[in-house]
Design goal:
16 helices; single chain; 12 strands; alpha/beta; globular
């Protein structure tokens, strides 16, 4: 029987926001039907808001208006037909309690990112124990408490949030990241023509990326050229100082078409190299994007990535936050293009096994089985 699933929230869509699209694909691939009840999110403006406190009051009032609008739309959708479950996509911290008050339909919250983990442990914007840190922890707990099931992207993140919130482990499930814009077929492999390995890094340069470690390692391996997309201003300046003409500096943000062009011409994609707790628990989107495009990946040997990709022949590993071992792996790969070609051939099959539509559908079905079990035991 087809499952009627209502997506309800304030999520963002388009380039740079693949999570909800991926989740919708998983539901459909599992045989479900999806309806949307959405008010548009703030997109990349939220990054500017963090640095512009004078805009916070106006943003707060706008957020309250958006929440009221969403509640009105939700009541209208529920009057049309009662869904089998409601999914509150990321970011749903602010609205899941409103949804809970509006209905007794089972609710799945795609938490995806813990507010406490992001603000306190990963980006270190505030100190542990501070008032804002306590507020973030309460925000996570209240959001998760309002849902019947909470989704994260890895088992490690699910276990972390269960411990952080003090809620039962049975309330949490996980659905891996996925590339909703994956090419139909992987890009053809191109052997290095000038003896240099072209390494592609794309990302914001947040601490879990460990970009400093990567730059230092590349600087010591002359046969590697780095194509850098993103990073902060200081990161980009340091890259220019260290690498000189072995650096190809792309804009801080490129659209998906340009990213596809860069993936097609590179030989290896850089994953993450940070040593933070979050780095140990995530499988970054960039790793999934690379594998979907048929490109091998070099990344830190973290529990989350090794769980999925160790033994895939598509990923090369180095210890987190260690320049010397990372440089050694890069040096060895620059001397052995045949190894890279073999890894490239294994990349798309590894993606399909772990992150493709069929895999995502299977994880959604498992999540629904856990939701049904939770409802049978206690319900609401």
């Amino acid at each position: 029987m087809s499952q009627d699933v209502l997506f309800c929230g304030l999520w963002d869509e388009g380039p740079g926001y693949p999570r909800t699209t991926s989740l919708r694909r998983a539901v459909v691939a599992a045989g479900g039907a999806v309806r949307d009840c959405r008010v548009a999110g703030v997109g990349r403006d939220k990054q500017r808001l963090v640095q512009q406190p004078w805009r916070w009051p106006a943003a707060w009032w706008q957020g309250r208006r958006d929440q009221r609008t969403l509640q009105q739309r939700l009541r209208a959708e529920l009057a049309i037909a009662r869904p089998d479950c409601i999914v509150v996509p990321y970011p749903g911290h602010r609205v899941v309690a409103d949804v809970r008050r509006s209905t007794d339909v089972p609710i799945v919250l795609d938490l995806f990112l813990s507010a406490y983990d992001t603000v306190v442990e990963d980006r270190r914007l505030v100190a542990p124990g501070s008032l804002l840190a306590q507020w973030c922890e309460r925000l996570d707990r209240r959001a998760c408490s309002a849902a019947d099931l909470v989704l994260l992207d890895t088992p490690e993140n699910a276990a972390y949030v269960a411990e952080l919130t003090g809620l039962p482990a049975e309330r949490f499930a996980w659905l891996p990241v996925h590339d909703p814009d994956a090419p139909t077929t992987p890009f053809p492999w191109q052997t290095p023509r000038d003896g240099q390995l072209e390494l592609l890094f794309f990302g914001t340069g947040v601490p879990l990326h460990g970009l400093d470690t990567l730059l230092a390692a590349v600087a010591s391996v002359p046969r590697v050229r780095l194509v850098l997309v993103g990073g902060t201003g200081p990161d980009r300046n340091r890259a220019q100082q260290l690498l000189g003409d072995r650096l190809v500096l792309e804009p801080e943000f490129v659209d998906r078409q340009r990213l596809a062009e860069l993936l097609a011409r590179c030989h290896l994609v850089a994953g993450i190299f940070g040593a933070s707790g979050k780095a140990q628990r995530v499988v970054p989107f960039k790793v999934v994007h690379a594998l979907a495009a048929g490109r091998p990946v070099l990344t830190a040997a973290t529990p989350a990535v090794c769980r999925w990709l160790d033994g895939s022949d598509a990923v090369f590993f180095a210890p987190a936050a260690e320049v010397g071992p990372l440089a050694t792996v890069l040096r060895d790969l620059a001397r052995a293009p045949a190894r890279l070609q073999h890894a490239a051939a294994a990349a798309r099959p590894a993606y399909e096994r772990r992150f493709g539509d069929a895999a995502a559908a299977g994880h959604w079905q498992q999540a629904m089985e856990r939701l049904a079990a939770n409802q049978a035991v206690g319900g609401r």
